[in-house]
């Protein structure tokens, strides 16, 4: 397109593969809880367990996958993870058609998909750094971010309509097919990929911890890491409580609930486009600190939501502000993380980051569920919002890593 920076044909195929799987994920958003409730008649405890346990166990399963990915060519790994997710998800409609679908199967599939997601993200980050020049990393990450938020804004409403017209497994089929199409897109990239420089014939115990060792020893990545896992945990822990509050006590219709959370996702598209303009003007550190602090200020407003149109307007305003700030922050963080990680440890670093994020979300979700049961959903939502106000204290205060660390991250030593 005119006025857009061209990143090459190979990046175009990578972006297309990401887009199709993102839209599939958007269409399939909430499909497993929906199946658990409508088909298996599961209660709230089972639905919460499905969400938390699938994420947590998948993260544990993914622990050895980081080193495994590091020592292999990344594109074949990405194709394999797409095919793995395709095959796992496809078992759900097959079992449903045969009358064999059960809660245990949904749990196993969610674990497999969660583990494959982590491995795919680790491989794709490493592949992106090798594919795109350093000066274009922010542009590439902002395009991924804008695509993800666009898919999030249109996917769930379309998925809900598809379920209403064609049945509860429709979106699972769409999600599965999207991974197959993504694998085909990755295959179409072509070209050769060099063999990783490090060995890896045998997995060592030290390799499992290398990602965390790099993160925790880096003076800027370390606070960003703790800030990200706490913020993500608190935001995600509030989502089921907000659903209970809106759909239950405040009497929102399902379409209203979907509308107030899907429409603000346009803020992610706006934020991701702003990020690549703000960094050259204000600097990477200032954008990270400002957007990171601002994204913590919005969720507390959800504790004051009321019924009817005023409540809908309040949610849209709060979510729009939150998602816009996240849309600015995420691609800058992703770019900084790639820039300050050596090529031979990117997969392990990204894997460690994703595993920690998944386990923290699962843990905080369970704790906040107990908090809501002991008090009320509104009080628990308010508590999460107040806790988020303190998270900017976890953001880094230093602009750059020390010279030695920077040289090591760029592979100069």
Explained architecture:
The protein has 413 residues and is mainly α. Helices cover 76% and strands 0% of the residues. Helix 7 runs antiparallel to helix 11. The two termini are 40 Å apart. The relative contact order is 0.15.
Q: Helix content range of the residues, please?
A: over 70%
- What's the main sheet like? none
Question: Uncertain segments of ≥5 residues (pLDDT<50)?
Answer: 401-413
Give the class from helix and strand content and strand pairing. mainly alpha
- Beta strand count: 0
Radius of gyration: 21 Å
What average pLDDT do the residues reach?
A: 85
Q: What shape does the CA trace take?
A: globular
- The ordered string of helix (H) and strand (E) elements is HHHHHHHHHHHHHHHHH
C-alpha end-to-end distance: 40 Å
Give the helix tally.
17
Into which percentage range does the β-strand content fall? under 5%
Main features:
413 residues; mainly alpha; disordered C terminus
Structure in a nutshell:
76% of the residues lie in helices and 0% in strands. It is mainly α and 413 residues long.
Strand and helix layout:
Blueprint: H1 9-27, H2 31-38, H3 44-61, H4 65-70, H5 74-98, H6 103-131, H7 137-166, H8 170-188, H9 205-217, H10 221-249, H11 254-262, H12 266-282, H13 284-294, H14 308-339, H15 346-374, H16 377-389, H17 403-409
């Amino acid at each position: 397109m005119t006025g857009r920076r061209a990143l090459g044909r190979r990046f175009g195929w990578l972006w297309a593969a990401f887009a199709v799987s993102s839209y599939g994920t958007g269409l399939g958003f909430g499909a497993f809880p929906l199946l658990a409730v409508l088909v298996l008649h599961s209660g709230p405890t089972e639905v919460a367990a499905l969400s938390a346990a699938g994420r947590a166990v998948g993260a544990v399963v993914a622990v050895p996958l980081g080193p495994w990915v590091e020592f292999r060519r990344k594109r074949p790994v990405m194709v394999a993870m797409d095919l793995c997710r395709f095959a796992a998800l496809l078992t759900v409609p097959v079992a449903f058609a045969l009358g064999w679908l059960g809660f245990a199967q949904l749990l196993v599939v969610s674990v497999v998909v969660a583990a494959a997601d982590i491995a795919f993200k680790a491989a794709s980050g490493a592949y992106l750094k090798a594919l795109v020049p350093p000066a274009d990393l922010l542009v590439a990450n902002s395009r991924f971010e804008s695509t993800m938020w666009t898919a999030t804004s249109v996917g769930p409403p379309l998925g809900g309509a598809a379920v209403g017209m064609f049945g509860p497994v429709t979106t699972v089929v769409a999600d599965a097919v999207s991974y197959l199409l993504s694998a085909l897109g990755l295959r179409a990239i072509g070209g050769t990929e060099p063999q990783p420089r490090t060995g890896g014939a045998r997995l060592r115990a030290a390799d499992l911890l290398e990602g965390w060792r790099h993160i925790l020893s880096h003076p800027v990545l370390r606070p960003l890491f703790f800030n990200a896992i706490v913020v993500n945990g608190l935001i995600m822990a509030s989502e089921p409580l907000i659903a209970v509050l809106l759909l239950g006590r405040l009497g929102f219709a399902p379409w209203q609930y979907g509308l107030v959370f899907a429409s603000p996702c346009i803020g992610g598209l706006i934020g991701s486009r702003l990020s690549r303009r703000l960094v050259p003007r204000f600097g990477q550190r200032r954008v990270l600190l400002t957007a990171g602090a601002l994204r913590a200020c919005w969720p507390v407003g959800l504790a004051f939501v009321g019924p009817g149109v005023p409540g809908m307007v309040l949610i849209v305003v709060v979510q729009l502000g939150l998602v816009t700030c996240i849309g600015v922050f995420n691609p800058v963080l992703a770019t900084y993380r790639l820039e300050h990680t050596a090529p031979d440890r990117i997969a392990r670093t990204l894997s460690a980051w994703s595993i920690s994020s998944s386990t923290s979300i699962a843990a905080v979700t369970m704790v906040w569920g107990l908090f809501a049961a002991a008090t009320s959903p509104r009080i628990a939502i308010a508590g999460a919002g107040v806790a988020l106000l303190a998270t900017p204290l976890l953001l880094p205060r230093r602009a750059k890593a020390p010279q030695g660390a920077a040289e090591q991250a760029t592979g100069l030593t």
